[in-house]
Write the structure tokens for this entry.
Amino acid sequence: MASRAVLRDFSGEKLYAHRLRGAKRMQIDDAQATMALETAQLLAAAELQDHLMTVTNDLDRLQRLIDDAGEALMCHFYGASQNVNVLMKLGEGQAAFDPSALKKAMEHLGGAITALQFQDMATQLIAHTNKRLRNCADQLARDTFADDEDGAAVLDEEPLRPNPVTQDEMDAGSCELF
Amino acid sequence: MHSILAVDDSASMRQMVSFTLKNAGFNVVEAIDGQDAWEKAGSRDFDLVLTDQNMPRMDGISLTKKLRDNPKFKTTPILILTTESSDQMKQAGRAAGATGWLVKPFDPAKLIEVIGKVIR
């Protein structure tokens, strides 16, 4: 947010006029005022690029956290379901065995499957957002700092399609047979 | 026992799909993307293919087209299970020869119900 504010302030004509008036008061010429303005714009762009890169790094970290959490949840999910199956088999044939509680436990585990798909959806959403932000940072560098004057700068590609994940809740999706 | 080829580049999704299908009594073979699925489909028969859309190397629609070009899979049900829900993508799937389009996340009972409707 700070970067945006800086960019807006230093690019506005109102502020430019104010700077010129200030320059006159300070007894500096127009060329110096223009240079000061351009420098401020470059600094603001650099700051904005820093913020974009920080966000992309945070998203990478978030992805690792989600992967770890997903892996742990899956591990516990399988552990629990395997134990329920073992208990069901142990109880089979015993007269006093009532499998209803274990069946209920298995139903609960089955019910978690829909929500456990969050990792796949979150991963796709993060990857798309990350790609877009990296492309913005690269574009900013190229346009503001003319980084690729020699054509050597590598730009992260802009996503060609809209975000594939449009769901905003973990309810089951639609089914359509053709 | 019916045999299903489950295709997804996400390991967690493959696990969820396999768990659901195996619990329902299906035999499941997993593939990590369209290319892997295409190679596995060449060496054995499947009663149904359940594939993701967005995958590296080969996506679900490309896989569907290739399978439909193979006489062995001309009539095999192919379901696309994806986060994509746009009509444009669905139409592309239909044109490629997919049997149905399921949007993630899937509900296990619903998935089994849909498979039961299309599998022979």
User: Anything to note?
Assistant: Chain A has five helices and one strand. The mean pLDDT of chain A is 78.
